[in-house]
Design a protein that fits this description.
The protein starts with 9 loop residues before the first helix and ends with a helix. The protein has 728 residues and is of the alpha/beta class. Strand 4 (344-353) and strand 5 form a beta hairpin. The protein has a six-stranded mixed β-sheet.
Length: 728
């Protein structure tokens, strides 16, 4: 694969470097006032470490060397070997000014005018190193950017796209409210029906006394009655036409808003290849400096991801690739001695996983020596000797992402201060993402970054817990279950359940969030299995409410105090619902101690009725099944009408719940087929559909459904009450 023309990335490098230098320079001022602020010093080290790494990848040796020496000075300050005096601060500021001048020269295509070698010597003198002559690198070479096909494009600030996304999100929230049939229209239709009934009763009453009227009186009375009946008939027709026209308008509006929403999201999406394409050439250069030989394989460049997510992924991926080269891939002679191919292999891959993206960095090198990690954990005071001996692999691997932790004896241009992987953890926290490490000694290491596809919108399942609503991203939901008392097994004082062959800790969501509220009523015993393939927890909630696509908003000051909430969403009526930070819950799960009091007490379950649930949307199907099973019903699911008929042929059911819009056979045809079959003639059918207009409701009842529930007004109690009434 040919080298990429790196000049296209010069401007982006400058912006990133200057942002990190701003943080560094502001931190110097703050440290003078509070020299013991280790957290601030860690942030400064991460900033200059990132600039150093980016410069190395871009081939900017002067900037890389200056950043390296600044990092050496700050590292000495953190160790207490050097005091942050005004002289030290001034030397660092001179060096950062030199980096700014070098980056400006690169972007403006002019030779640099910086005595960078003298700046390096001054920084080395501060740490007591020999001031040996610095070998001057070749001047910065600026190549002309290749000409490309001219496209009509404009640059738009991403913040403006964010504002547009939020405005479209507001419209979607309002549209959900509009979809629901207005209460005023329903009331008017009911009043019209009552007026028709009263008029019919009046006619019957008057007809009984007709012979008592004189002919002219009878003609006048019944004439006016006919006028009243005609007026009510016209009113009824107008209301029906209005309801039908309104339904058609709402449907067109929904389609237009859905298209607008997709287009807005598309404006934010860019291929992951824009991040990956810089690596082929630079990996070869970095491999040569590390003394290793390596082939780089890239997959999944076509996967699209939110630009803001991609920007936040840049530093983590850079650090992981550098670590693979410096820590993982062995030198050629070592690989030959081990019977491995002389050239190592690094795989950089992106995989779309529903609403999330997995970015994996895999090498076939040494793997991570857990015994070395144990020793370093004890030496650095991270773990006691006893705790280190008993620590499981997951705990040891988690230490690699802590600030200051390193398995290196000596710092290099690449690693040695424990800064790199700390950058990974920090970026993943900002993305509400997860990181997972798999390693085999002598075989290699894979680090997987699990991040959301976009930060603008989210598909969520809303649940009630402790009297409050909370939204859980559906991409993190592995399953829905109903809690059974005999299924709870205490492990280390914490209740756990068995789910798909593994033990999963059970937490009360209200207890986790510090919420208290009413005790759950009958049937309010659902739990959600959340997490990833590598780590899961079960969250007990009071009830499940709804599933929807929502716009993500930043938390307010009050909600932001909870470490388990990442964002919020606002409904069309102005209700604010916080969004659960599943990654934070998973990080806290090992140390969380929940007793049996955290879980709602089980309730007696009645003799179960068998319900056939027909729904093609997986999450909606699982939501409805969980609600029904929590109420004590036995539920069998089908994904469309054809599948439902096959199950009806094989088994007996007491009730059918079906959606309308499904592949192969929709819910209306299914209901009609059920009614045509004599053996199923008494089988109750409930339609649960997103179509909330009166025409769809009338069609559903005409084909034989006993009840029709619009998803826009769907909730747990509504469904359970309807089912209970039909089953008696």
């Amino acid at each position: 694969m040919p080298d990429i023309d790196l000049t296209a990335f010069y401007g982006q490098f400058r912006d990133e470097a200057w942002e990190n230098l701003d943080l560094l320079e502001q931190g110097l001022t703050a440290l003078e006032a509070n020299p013991h602020d280790s957290t601030l010093l860690d942030r400064m080290l991460r900033a200059i470490h990132t600039t150093k790494g980016s410069a190395k990848i871009m081939g900017f040796s002067e900037i890389n060397r200056l950043a390296h020496e600044i990092e050496e000075v700050l590292g000495a300050v953190r160790k207490g070997a050097l005091a942050l005096t005004p002289e030290v601060g001034n030397a660092i500021l001179e060096a950062t000014a030199g980096i700014r001048a070098l980056t400006s020269a690169l972007v403006e295509r002019k030779p640099p005018d910086v005595e960078w070698a003298a700046l390096v010597q001054k920084l080395r003198a501060l740490t007591g190193k020999e001031t040996a002559p610095v070998e001057t690198a070749a001047p910065v070479t600026v190549t002309s950017q290749p000409s490309a096909r001219v496209r009509e494009t404009i640059r738009i600030d991403l913040e403006r796209i964010d504002r547009l996304s939020r405005m479209v999100g507001d419209l979607l929230s309002l549209q959900q409210e509009v979809q629901a049939e207005p209460a005023g229209l329903r009331t008017l239709q009911e009043m019209t029906g009552e007026a028709r009934s009263a008029t019919a009763a009046l006619r019957d009453r008057l007809q009984a006394y007709r012979d008592r009227f004189r002919p002219l009186q009878a003609e006048e009375v019944f004439g006016r009655l006919e006028q009243l009946e005609a007026s009510l008939q016209r009113l009824d027709e107008h209301l029906e036409r209005f309801s039908r026209d309104r339904g058609a308008f709402v449907e067109r509006l929904s389609l237009s808003l859905a298209s607008l929403h997709q287009e807005t999201l598309g404006m934010r999406m860019v291929p992951v290849g824009t991040l990956f394409e810089v690596f082929p050439g630079v990996v070869r250069r970095l491999a040569a400096e590390c003394g290793v030989e390596v082939d780089l394989e890239i997959r999944g460049t076509e996967v699209e991801i939110d630009r803001r997510v991609l920007d936040l992924l840049r530093d983590p991926v850079v650090h992981l690739v550098r670590n693979a080269l410096d820590h993982g891939i062995e030198p050629p002679e070592e690989r030959r001695a081990l019977g491995k191919p002389q050239r190592g292999r690094i795989l950089l891959e992106a995989k779309a996983q529903g609403q999330r993206v997995h970015v994996c960095v895999t090498d076939d090198g040494r793997g991570i020596d857990l015994e070395v990690v144990r020793q370093k954990a004890v030496q650095g005071g991270w773990l006691s000797a006893e705790a280190a001996r008993e620590a499981p692999e997951a705990t040891l691997l988690d230490l690699l992402f802590r600030p200051g932790f390193s398995t290196r004896e000596k710092a290099t241009d690449f690693s040695g201060r424990g800064v790199g992987l700390d950058v990974v953890r920090t970026a993943l926290h900002a993305l509400n993402g997860l990181v997972h490490v798999q390693t085999q000694p002598g075989r290699g290491t894979t680090v997987t970054l699990d991040v959301p596809l976009t930060l603008a919108t989210l598909r969520v399942l809303t649940a009630e817990s402790g009297g409050n609503l909370v939204a859980i991203p559906t991409s993190s939901i592995q399953g829905l279950i109903r809690l059974q008392p005999e299924a709870l097994v205490p492990v280390e004082g914490r209740p756990t359940i068995e789910w798909q062959g593994s033990s999963v800790p059970l937490l009360s969501l209200s207890a986790l969030l510090g919420w208290s509220g009413r005790q759950p009523g009958p049937g309010a015993l659902p739990a959600l299995i959340v997490g990833s393939d590598h780590q899961k927890v079960a969250l007990a909630v009071d009830r499940l409410v709804d599933e929807a696509e929502v716009v993500v908003r930043p938390l307010g000051e009050i909600l932001a105090k909870s470490r388990f909430l990442s964002a919020a969403t606002i409904s069309g009526t102005g209700q604010v619902t916080p969004i659960l930070d599943v990654a934070a819950v998973l990080r806290a799960a090992p140390s969380h101690r929940a007793g049996r009091d955290d879980v709602p007490a089980p309730l007696p379950v009645r003799t179960p009725a068998r319900v056939l649930l027909v729904e093609d949307a997986i999450v909606t199907r699982e939501l409805e099944r969980s609600i029904l099973e929590a109420a004590g019903y036995q539920v069998v699911t089908a994904f469309d009408g054809v599948d439902a008929l096959e199950k009806l042929e094989r088994d007996a059911f007491q009730l059918v719940i079906t959606d309308i819009e499904m592949p192969r056979m929709d819910g209306l045809e299914l209901t009609a087929r059920i009614r045509q079959e004599p053996r199923w003639s008494g089988l109750p059918v409930v339609i649960v559909s997103a179509r909330g207009d009166e025409e769809s409701r009338r069609r559903g009842l005409q084909v034989g459904a006993q009840a029709y529930i619009a998803k826009s007004r769907f909730d747990q109690n509504n469904l359970l009450e309807t089912v209970a009434q039909l089953l008696g």
